[in-house]
Every structure is written in structure tokens, then in C-alpha cells.
Amino acid sequence: MQSEAFTLYQPRRRETPVVFSSPHSGRAYPPAFLAESVLDAHMIRSSEDAFVDELFMSAPDFGAPLIAATAPRAYVDLNRAADEMDASVVEGVPRSPHNPRVASGLGVIPRVVSGGRQIYRGKIPLEEAEARIKRHWTPYHAALRQLTEASHSQFGQSILVDCHSMPHEAIEAHSRPGQARPEVVLGDRFGAAAARDVVDQIEAAFRRAGLRVSRNAPFAGAYIAQTYGRPSRGYHVVQVEIDRALYMDEAQILPSADFEAFRALISGVVAEITRIGRLQVPLAAE
After folding, report:
1. Residues 232-269: pLDDT tens digits?
2. Residue 180 and residue 126: Cα distance in Å, rounded?
């Protein structure tokens, strides 16, 4: 299923409560947006989770849907609340109480890309910001909500795997001397977004693939985990951050020579996660 806001890859038959989401892999940059930015067409992609949707593209083969954004994160960030507006970049927006994400320039309409590089020369009209939210944010979250609720209705619970990538330098900056850097960071908002046994099994799937895994540091989960994760009601969200250096040339924003091999490895992880979902289904839902 294709829309202006997302592409939805559906399995022939839903066989698991697991849903995969890739909200930051969009790469359809509107020409007008590029024209009003101070960044060139390459530099503006630095905050994009490039190729993450491709890494998880096998999800429908294992009975799980994958929803992937079309709009890039630099244009509108689907992992932020619609009201996380930055008065420094959107005209007519009042300054709100301190919000760390907005203050750092990473609101729903981002002010910066990776490295703190400014996107705009000045501010954009509020009407433009609201139009982006209406065209992209609202339909994406309506579809995501429908997918998670369908899982819960059919299987008794929903397990949302929120797929992202992280710059290699971000891991280096948060690693302790002498300690091996994690290659995957799982975020469950310190237990608030997913039950421990769900996270344990997802972590085990990545570890069995030979990847080093940590939890909640430096990424614990943002808006999607915070909003959709209600483990006490059977709604689980686990944010997955994968080191970009494992599968791409970060400077060139191109797949590395090992991309296909790594995608096959992640496909094996996806298969395991969907089996975890089947095992988690309550007997009453069978």
C-alpha cells in the first residue's frame, strides 16, 4: 500500500502480533524544501535513517507488516509529538516550557540535522508546518495506530519494533574506555514501553546474530515508544538503533560492500522476533 505519507508492506496473512515501523528512513525530499535550505542535497540527508527500511524489508515474509515513512526526518519528524513545535524555526509559535528535544533543534519540524547544522536561513510559516503535519504526520500515525490495534485485537497484544539507525560517532561518544561499543541499542524507556520478557527475547535475537547489544543508553526511545507503549494493556514498543557503520558508508550515504550480507543477518533477526511474537500470543487468542 502506497500513500503520500508512507509505504505499507503487508504480509499475505498476519501470523504474529509484531509490527515493524521505520519512521526516519524517508528520502522523498521536496524540491521546494531543498531550495529553502542552506544545506545541499547531500548534507541534509545526515539525519536520515538511510536504508533502514531495506534492512527490515523481509518482515512481510514472516507474517508481519512493515510501515515506512516517505518524507525525510529533516522535513517532518514522525517520532515527535505534533505539538513539539520549535519557536526558533516556526513563525507564530509561542515558546513553551522547556522540552529537551525542541531545545536541541529536534522538534516535529527540525531546526538542525546531525552535528547541529542549521537547515533554514530563517523561519518557516506556521501554515507550512501545519501542512506538513497534516500530509505526513497525521496519516502515518493513523496507520500505525491501526496496525497496533489490529495486532492487539487479533492476537491479544501488540509488539511494535521501532526501527532506527545511529551514527557511529554517537556510540563512540557514549562508550566507556575499555568497554566494547554496542552495535545495537534497544530502548524501552526503562521498562515503561515494553514488558521485560519481550525486550529480553528481542535482545537475545540480536545477540544470537553476533551483535553487541545494550539497553536505553544513549537512546531510550522517543515519542513512538512513549505513546504506543502500554505494556500493562498488552501494547509493547521496543526502539531499535543500529550502528550505521555496520552496513553503510556514512560519509557518502551509500550501502557498504557488506550491505547485502548484513541485510541477510537482520532478516534472520526479524524471523526470530516474529517467532517471539507468536510465542507471546495468549492461549485465549489462538
Report:
1. 999 999 999 999 999 999 999 999 999 999 999 999 99
2. 45
Lowest mean pLDDT among 9-23, 93-107, 149-163, 165-179: 165-179
Answering whether pTM is above 0.90, one says: yes
Partnered with residue 166 across adjacent β-strands are 243
Which residue type, as a one-letter code, is found at position 261? A
Alpha-helix residue ranges (DSSP H) falling in the chain: 31-36, 52-55, 100-103, 126-132, 138-155, 168-174, 196-208, 223-228, 259-280
163's CB contacts (< 8 A; 6+ apart) are 20, 21, 22, 25, 49, 52, 53, 55, 56, 240, 242
Indicate the Cα dihedral angle 239, 245, 249, 253, nearest 10°. Answer: 20
166 exposure class (CB count in 10 Å sphere: 0-12, 13-18, 19+): buried
The sign of the CA dihedral 188, 191, 192, 194 is positive
| Residues 144/7, Cβ–Cβ less than 8 Å | no
94 DSSP assignment: P
